[in-house]
Design a protein that fits this description.
Layout (H helix, E strand, L loop, with lengths): L1 H11 L18 H10 L4 H5 L7 H10 L1 H26 L10 H24 L1 H4 L14 H30 L1
Length: 177
């Protein structure tokens, strides 16, 4: 009986400290800085997180959503990534065809570069649309027609035609008589 009382007393005690799995990646962990640096240097979040000793994708997204300072650093890194991709486009476009490539091989190499350039252009336009996105002209010119103005113009034309016809009748009557 003495043992059962000891067990019951242990159940009554509240645990000290935080229970559960220890946090492996608190915000102070340098891994978060490595993630930001990798993104700023042109890598995707997914490719960085596949590296060894990195947090899971869901934990990284949770950190972006819940930690304001990390979110700001992440957003700035994404903009830097777009700038990096724009620079890579220029580098890809300036590449010379490797020696020895002819015919279909040269065509395939050019096509591969074209795909790389197009992918970078598209991603850069989505990551930093104000700088690299398509410019859409949304200016509006007011070309509405005023119905009242149109009616007044029509009445003026009708009255000028009536006056012209009356003048011609008078002129014809004078010429005949």
């Amino acid at each position: 009986m003495k043992n059962s009382n000891a067990i019951e007393k242990n159940y009554d005690k509240k645990p000290k400290g935080i229970m559960g799995r220890p946090v492996e990646f608190p915000i102070e962990n340098p891994v978060w800085e490595k993630i930001i640096d990798g993104i700023a240097n042109g890598k995707s979040l997914s490719s960085i997180l596949r590296m060894p000793n990195m947090p899971s994708y869901s934990l990284a997204k949770l950190m972006i959503r819940t930690n304001e300072s990390f979110k700001e650093a992440y957003e700035k890194a994404v903009e830097d990534r777009a700038d990096r991709m724009a620079e890579e486009i220029i580098d890809l476009a300036d590449q010379k065809i490797p020696a020895g490539l002819e015919g279909q091989a040269a065509s395939a190499w050019v096509q591969q570069l074209r795909v790389q350039v197009d992918a970078r252009k598209w991603v850069a336009s989505k990551l930093k649309p104000r700088t690299y996105g398509d410019r859409i002209d949304v200016s509006v010119t007011d070309t509405r027609i005023s119905v009242l103005d149109a009616l007044e113009a029509a009445q003026a034309r009708v009255q000028s035609n009536i006056i012209d016809v009356s003048v011609k009748r008078i002129e014809n009557a004078q010429n005949e008589g």
